[in-house]
């Protein structure tokens, strides 16, 4: 069995014992390394030259990619982080020094010893304990929105208090993590806050009361998308809705201004049906 093809099938990085168990011979492994078709990463791990850099790094450290790093790799909404987040069992040891954020924690779900990426459930449990509530909520809601979480399965697991709170609070409607920030931040208004409501043929990000619409622009709101958004905003106004449109950095870095716009609109009664 060709060890290079086997390694590629296993994601580009594989352990020696796994390759041998699947039919690769020691001689063919040595030849593949000599021919530079495989690279030895140390401690019985091999990689193809074009292997994913993050997986290679995890293999060299003896860890798994987890927490927000794993969430981002699964296509979930996350805020940028300065360092990769990895996980290791409490009695595990790093093979070399690293600037990665290491989570020394017993996994909720047993980890495959051949894996270099954590399970999504384990990663989300770490997100719950590691990240601020709003960021963690956005990640969990992104997973629910993509259908990657099963609430009933999670309810049967021994979740910690942070993960249990997120399981209770998270909803599957947010298309963007920015939308997940609004409900917890505005709950004190004691007004109906309804995300992802269909109005005039399209979803709106948040409907406050009966008539106040908040739309959140991500980086994709350009060109054709911008024209479609402008047209939809105009239709909403013709139907008697008031639209507040804000962008990514306003929500992340200038929330007081965003909140002032919303509460001023509420004070003017723009969230109510006008007779």
Summarize the structure.
With 275 residues, this protein is of the alpha+beta class. It is built from 13 helices and 10 strands.
Question: What's the arrangement of secondary structure elements?
Answer:
Elements: H1 3-9, E1 13-15, H2 16-21, H3 26-34, E2 39-42, E3 45-47, H4 53-61, E4 64-65, H5 67-73, E5 85-88, E6 101-104, H6 120-130, H7 133-145, H8 151-155, H9 161-169, H10 177-186, E7 193-199, E8 202-208, E9 212-217, H11 223-238, E10 242-247, H12 248-253, H13 255-267
Parallel strand pairs: 5-6, 9-10
Antiparallel strand pairs: 1-3, 2-3, 4-5, 7-8, 8-9
Pfam families: AbiEi_4 (PF13338), DUF559 (PF04480)
Domain DUF559: 193-266
Domain AbiEi antitoxin N-terminal: 5-49
Description:
There is one protein chain. By secondary structure, the chain is an alpha+beta fold. The chain has three domains: about 5-50; about 60-170, no CATH class; about 175-265, VSR Endonuclease (Endonuclease, Chain A, 3-Layer(aba) Sandwich), CATH 3.40.960.10. It is about 45% helix and about 15% strand. It contains 13 helices and ten strands. It has helices at about 5-10, 15-20, 25-35, 55-60, 65-75, 120-130, 135-145, 150-155, 160-170, 175-185, 225-240, 250-255, 255-265, and strands at about 15, 40, 45, 65, 85-90, 100-105, 195-200, 200-210, 210-215, 240-245. The strands form three sheets. It has a four-stranded mixed sheet, with helices on both faces. A hairpin with a 3-residue loop joins strand 8 (about 200-210) and strand 9 (about 210-215). Helix 5 crosses helix 6 (about 120-130) and helix 7 (about 135-145) crosses helix 10. The chain is elongated, with a radius of gyration of 24 Å. The model has no long low-confidence stretch (mean pLDDT about 90).
